[in-house]
Amino acid sequence: MGHLAMTKRDKALQGIQQDPELSDSSKHTYAQCLMAMTAKLGQPISEVAMQPMTILPSIKKQYPEVATQKNMVTAVLAALRRMPAMKQQHRQALAIWLQASKELEVQQQARLKGNEPSATQQRGYVDFKEVIKVRTTVAKGSRQRFLLAFYTMIPPLRCGLNRVALLQCPASAATISPDEVDAVRENNFLCLSADRKKPAILVLREFKIANSAGIWRRTLPMNLTQELWTSLQAEPHSCSSWLLASLSTGGPDTMQAALATCVLSCLCTTKKSKV
Fold first, then answer.
1. Beta strands of 25-159 (E only): which ranges?
2. Is the dihedral of CA 124, 129, 132, 138 positive or negative?
């Protein structure tokens, strides 16, 4: 992963990017936050970090989300700790930033414990019943309906569907054995029975909480299995070996975020039509 460009005088940012103990993702995240701050204020991070009483109100005003505020403060702390000379004035600034970080952490944890949605989540909230209504109005076999079916007919998954191999089993998919599961090359796959009256089975071995949850194996409800068959018949991915296939290459679709946006556009269109 490449690092963002930096000015020659920003020694603190150089210190972050040259620290072997930081991961590339952390370096990239810190650099993004710090470069955004310096671009906004027109000052190098070494100067920004020394003005917590001025910069903190600016951060809170510009970024209403507590999580984003916390990310910005954490990035400044990372820079301060890597400044070439930690003089007394640096220590004073560091103490103020540390206190701000602690206060933001308390706010963040309180929101998480209360399961309170963020402002962004509140703005994007769509009632589940509304999603179901939209699903029934979208054309059968369309990709939008297919995705909405997977989002609503089974419990939420902490796994993208963009790389799920699509296999066809000669017998009932529900009878697939552990040995047969182990023999499948792809970590995540969906097995369709040759008999279309029998349900499909979804097996996930690679997802966000796989280390603690283990293999996720579920027999899909028949209504979802039928939605899948209809989609396979209607869309070009019917000849592909992937659950979500790229319409241009036939390979696994890496654009699930764009597809999700397409689904959300269905919701927005429905809402507007009611106004």
1. none
2. negative
Amino acid residing at 28: H
Strands 188-193 and 165-169 turn out to be: parallel
Q: What is the pTM of this model?
A: 0.52
Angle between helices 24-41 and 52-62 (to 10 degrees): 100
Side chain identity, residue 260: A
Using one digit for the tens of pLDDT, what is the confidence trace for 79-118? 888 876 656 668 888 899 999 999 999 988 887 777 777 7
pLDDT value at position 7? 42
Residue numbers in the chain where pLDDT is lower than 50: 1-9, 238-239, 255, 257-258, 275
Asked if residue 81 lies in contact with residue 91, where contact means CB atoms within 8 angstroms, the answer is no
What strand order describes the sheet that includes 188-193? 165-169, 188-193, 201-204, 216-219
| Gyration radius from the chain CA atoms | 25
d(CA 192, CA 170): 9
Residue 147's contacts (CB-CB under 8 Å, 6 or more residues apart) are 161, 259, 260, 262, 263
pLDDT of residue 10: 66
Which tokens in the block code for residue 237?
């991915």
Q: What is the pLDDT of residue 243?
A: 73
β-partners of residue 71 are none
For the four alpha carbons of 226, 246, 254 and 194, in that order, the dihedral sign comes to positive
Angle in degrees, 0-180, between the axes of helices 143-152 and 128-137, rounded to the nearest 10: 150
- Angstrom distance (rounded) from CA 141 to CA 12: 54
